[in-house]
Specification:
Length: 233
């Protein structure tokens, strides 16, 4: 987790929307300043390794994590960094509606449950917000930081962003060094097919592949940045 490659990926997220970042000239559509009204979703929150990057950017963060020790580490880390955090766990997972669970002023909310529930919870939040004038749920980032692959959560990660004009999926995967380009093409084709089926006119581009670190001989830990946009995007 604390390898040099992972530290670089964490820093890359921190610079993702900055005009002066190394990638901004190549991807000018990434330059954004009003992030406090946007949401990031971490499908594998862990101890907050990437959660904290999004929080540092000013985004509201919703995360999912099953390991109670990791959740406690995340909670303590968030408080040490000055971020209000709420953990929804135990009986509260069923006793509280998603709207009630996220109704406070916490910047970070973690659900101690399987991320298979994430899509429904986001849909419930979006429906509730749509009834309030001037309020909407805009998911800007979805992080899938599980190895050897985050593939089981890819479909729901895509669906979570369906109402966003632009969004990025950061999908982690272990890939053979000779298969990276093929995997990138397969991923773009698969998500493009979902976009066609969805019928919202979204464009799908795997705009960047970050080779984070070697996982084993001939195997790279990759992060595929999938850019989703509507219209001119």
């Amino acid at each position: 987790m604390f390898s040099r490659g992972n530290v670089v990926e964490k820093a890359r997220l921190l610079d993702f929307h900055k005009a002066q970042s190394a990638e901004s000239s190549k991807f000018p559509h990434r330059i954004l300043t009003d992030l406090k009204t946007k949401t990031a979703v971490d499908m594998y929150a862990g101890i907050g390794y990437f959660v904290f990057s999004y929080a540092r950017l000013g985004l509201r963060v919703l995360g999912w994590e099953l390991n109670p020790w990791s959740i406690e580490g995340l909670r303590r880390g968030a408080l040490r960094n000055g971020w209000a955090v709420k953990v929804v766990q135990g009986a509260d997972l069923s006793a509280l509606s998603t709207i009630e669970a996220t109704s406070g002023n916490e910047q970070i909310t973690i659900f101690a449950e399987d991320n298979c529930h994430a899509q429904l919870r986001l849909e419930q939040l979006r429906a509730a917000n749509s009834k309030i004038p001037g309020k909407c749920l805009t998911v800007l980032h979805v992080n899938g930081g599980l190895l050897p692959t985050s593939e089981p959560s890819w479909a729901s990660s895509f669906a979570i962003t369906r109402m966003s004009d632009k969004a990025w999926l950061h999908l982690h995967d272990n890939v053979g060094i000779d298969d990276i380009e093929t995997r990138q093409q397969e991923l773009e084709q698969r998500i493009s097919a979902w976009a066609i089926e969805e019928g919202l006119g979204r464009t799908v581009v795997v705009e960047y592949t970050m080779k984070v670190k070697t996982f084993a001989p001939g195997v790279w830990h990759c992060v595929f940045d999938v850019y989703l946009s509507k219209g001119a995007g």
